[in-house]
Write a structure and sequence with these properties.
Blueprint (H helix, E strand, L loop, with lengths): L1 H39 L25 E3 L8 E2 L1 H5 L4 E6 L4 H16 L6 E7 L3 H15 L5 E4 L1 H5 L11 E7 L2 E8 L6 H16 L1
Parallel strand pairs: 3-4, 4-5
Antiparallel strand pairs: 1-2, 1-5, 3-6, 6-7
Helix pairs in contact: 3-6
C-alpha cells in the first residue's frame, strides 16, 4: 500500500515537472520569436523614446555623447547638444574627411566667429568605427586649418540610435537647430557638397543666428 502511494506521488511529481518544463520551453520560444521579429524590423518602424526619431524639421534634437578630439575639452566625453542648450547650432555629421568637408568646416568656423555674439555655435562629429586612426587626422585638420570649433568622434550608433536619421550614403550631413529643435538640414553624398551647396549651408546658418 505504501509502495503504491510512493508510486502515485512520484508519478504526480513527474507530470508536474513535465508541465512546468513545457511551459518554460514555450515561453522561451515566444521570446525568441519576438526578438527575431524585432531584429527584422526596419529602422523606420522601430519606435524610440525620442521625438526626433524621423529627424525632420521641427523635431527635437536628442542628447548624445561624443569623444572630443580638439579644443579645451579634448579627451573628454561631452554632450554638445546639452552644452549649447537653446542656442542656434550648426551640427556637422561626417562619414569621411576630404576637401569638401574641410572647406565646409572652415567656412562654418568663420561664420561662427562672425556671429558668436548672436550665440551661434558649431561642432563636428566624425562617425567612424576606427577612432584611434581618425583622431590624429582631426587634430592635424584643426591645426592646419586653424579651426576653433570642436572636432569630435562617435560610433555608428550616433547616426542611428541617436535618432538623427543620418542617411547611410551621405558623407556630409548638416543639421541646423535652435531651442533643440531642427530648423533645417542638408545631406550630401561624396563629391556633391560643392561651393554652391556650402553657400546654402552658410547662408542658412547666418539666417538662423540673426533672425
Amino acid at each position: 500500500m505504501r509502495a503504491a502511494t510512493h508510486y502515485q506521488r512520484d508519478r504526480y511529481r513527474s507530470r508536474h515537472f513535465w508541465r512546468v518544463s513545457c511551459a518554460v520551453i514555450a515561453a522561451c520560444l515566444v521570446c525568441v520569436e519576438f526578438r527575431i521579429a524585432c531584429s527584422d524590423e526596419s529602422p523606420a518602424t522601430v519606435t524610440t523614446n525620442s521625438s526626433a526619431a524621423s529627424g525632420k524639421v521641427g523635431d527635437e534634437v536628442p542628447s548624445f555623447y561624443v569623444r572630443t578630439v580638439t579644443g579645451p575639452l579634448a579627451g573628454k566625453s561631452v554632450c554638445y547638444v546639452c552644452r549649447h542648450g537653446d542656442r542656434p547650432v550648426a551640427m556637422v555629421l561626417l562619414r569621411e574627411l576630404g576637401p569638401e568637408s574641410t572647406a565646409l568646416l572652415k567656412e562654418l568656423n568663420q561664420t561662427v566667429d562672425r556671429h558668436r555674439a548672436d550665440g551661434l555655435r558649431c561642432f563636428a562629429v566624425l562617425v567612424t568605427g576606427a577612432p584611434q586612426r581618425e583622431a590624429p587626422r582631426l587634430q592635424t585638420l584643426a591645426f592646419d586649418e586653424k579651426l576653433d570649433l570642436p572636432l569630435t568622434l562617435a560610433g555608428e550608433a550616433v547616426a542611428t540610435e541617436a535618432a538623427l536619421n543620418v542617411e547611410p550614403d551621405a558623407s556630409i550631413t548638416v543639421i541646423l537647430y535652435e531651442n533643440r529643435h531642427i530648423v533645417s538640414r542638408f545631406a550630401h553624398r561624396s563629391g556633391a557638397c560643392d561651393a554652391a551647396a556650402r553657400r546654402d549651408i552658410v547662408s542658412a546658418a547666418e539666417k538662423l543666428a540673426t533672425k
